[in-house]
Write a structure and sequence with these properties.
Helices cover about 30% and strands about 30% of the residues. By secondary structure, it is an alpha+beta fold. The strands form three sheets. Strands 2-1-3-10-4 form a five-stranded mixed β-sheet. A three-stranded antiparallel β-sheet has the order 8-7-9, with no helix packed on it. Strands 5-6 form a two-stranded antiparallel ribbon. β1, α1 and β2 form a beta-alpha-beta unit.
């Protein structure tokens, strides 16, 4: 995975240390370009579409989505990159009481939040949040 683009979606201005940290991590992991897109919270779709459009103009094979409210370690980053699936999302939670994971499975036409999963394993789900997600180019090309 030598040619990956890192898509950063922000609903506010990024502070200097956040940008420096992300750039250092990207550089240390061999990411070739970072795509920043500012959007507002009400229109995340527009920001994500801008990032995807810039990605598709590039020759990169992978796009790593990272929302600016995500916290992750370099090991989390490496684990996400090590998976073979065309779409892989890191595990993170919605701000709810109790917190629930941003992943669902569909059963009988209804979405159900996944509540139990094995630790340190990759599982298949029907939907997941984009906050920390690695996506292969072919996924976008199939949508065109």
């Amino acid at each position: 995975m030598s040619d990956i683009r890192l898509g950063i979606l922000s609903d506010e201005k990024l502070d200097y240390l956040t940008v420096v940290s992300l750039m250092r991590l990207a550089d240390a992991r061999g990411l070739t370009k970072v795509i920043f897109a500012n959007g507002d919270v009400g229109r995340l779709d527009e920001g994500r579409n801008r990032v995807a459009g810039e990605f598709l103009k590039s020759g990169a094979e992978w796009l790593l989505w990272v929302d600016t409210d995500m916290e992750f370690t370099p090991l989390d980053f490496d684990n996400l990159m090590a998976r073979k699936a065309p779409i892989v999302s890191g595990l993170y939670y919605r701000a709810s009481d109790p917190p629930t994971a941003c992943m669902m499975r569909y059963k009988d036409g209804r979405a159900q939040v996944v509540r139990d999963w094995p630790k340190n394993k990759t599982i298949s789900v029907d939907s997941a949040g984009f906050g920390f997600m690695l996506t292969r180019r072919e996924v976008f090309e199939k949508m065109l």
